[in-house]
Amino acid sequence: MQINRFIKTALLNDLLHSGKVILLYGPRQAGKTTLSKEIIAASGLRTLLVNADQAKYIDILSGRDLSKLQSLVHGYDLFVIDEAQRIPEIGINLKILHDEMPGLKLLVTGSSSFLLSGRVSESLAGRKRIFTLLPVSVQELMDSYNPFELNDQLEERMIFGSYPEVITTKNNAEKEEYLRDITSSLIFKDILELEQIKYPVKIRELLKLLAFQVGSQVSLNELGQQLGLNRETVERYLWLLEHSFIIFRLSAFSRNPRKEISKSQKYFFYDNGIRNIMIDDLRSIKNRNDTGALWENFIISERRKYLLFNRISNQSYFWRTYSGTELDYIEESRDELFSYEIKFSKTKARAPLAWTQFYGSNFRLVNRNNYLEFIT
Question: CATH no. for residue 269?
Answer without folding.
Answer: 1.10.10.10
